[in-house]
Amino acid sequence: MQPVVEALAQGNWGRNLNQVNQLMEKTPRKSCRTFNREDSAPVSIATVIERHEAMLTPAMLAVLLAISVKSIYAWVKAGTLPACILGTSIRFDPCDTAAWIRARTE
After folding, report:
1. What are phi and psi of 76, to 5 degrees?
2. Confidence check: pLDDT of 54 > 60
3. Does the N-terminal or the C-terminal CB of the chain have fewer CB atoms within 10 Å?
4. Distance between the two ends of the chain, CA-based, in angstroms?
5. Can you give the residue range of the structural domain that contains 37?
6. Among residues 68, 72, 30, which one has the least CA distance to residue 4?
7. How far is CA 67 from CA 5, 40, 70, in A?
8. Residue 101 to residues 25, 38, 105: CA-CA distances in angstroms?
9. 5-28 pLDDT tens trace
10. Backbone angle region of 87, left / alpha / beta, with phi > 0 → left and psi within -120 to 50 → alpha
């Protein structure tokens, strides 16, 4: 899981999401709630999202939350998940999304 965590924490998504998906397929599955680095304390997924510097796409958020993109779109349509709708594109502010996750996990 280490290469995936480092790629996500650094905002290094590669050229496309397929690279992240390939990394995730090669790594053993662990808890989705926290990422553990050998040299630091566990980091919550909300913290990983909050540290991301750019807006997140629905596909990026789906990978981070380990859910389908279809669920992301359904939550946005229902008004459950805070999103920025820019024309026909949907983006997610990392701070707002992290706060939304924390409100549901506490």
Report:
1. -65, -45
2. yes
3. C
4. 25
5. 2-105
6. 30
7. 17, 26, 8
8. 24, 25, 6
9. 555 555 555 545 666 566 556 555
10. left
Percent of the chain predicted with pLDDT > 70: 61
Q: How far apart are CA 18 and CA 92, in angstroms?
A: 20
Per DSSP, the residues of 87-101 read TTEEEB-HHHHHHHH
- Which SS3 state, helix, strand or coil, does residue 84 take? strand
Is it the case that residue 29 has pLDDT exceeding 60?
no
pTM above 0.70, yes or no: no
Number of domains in the chain: 1
Task: Judge contact between 35 and 43, C-beta under 8 A.
Answer: yes
- In this structure, which amino acid lies at residue 49? I
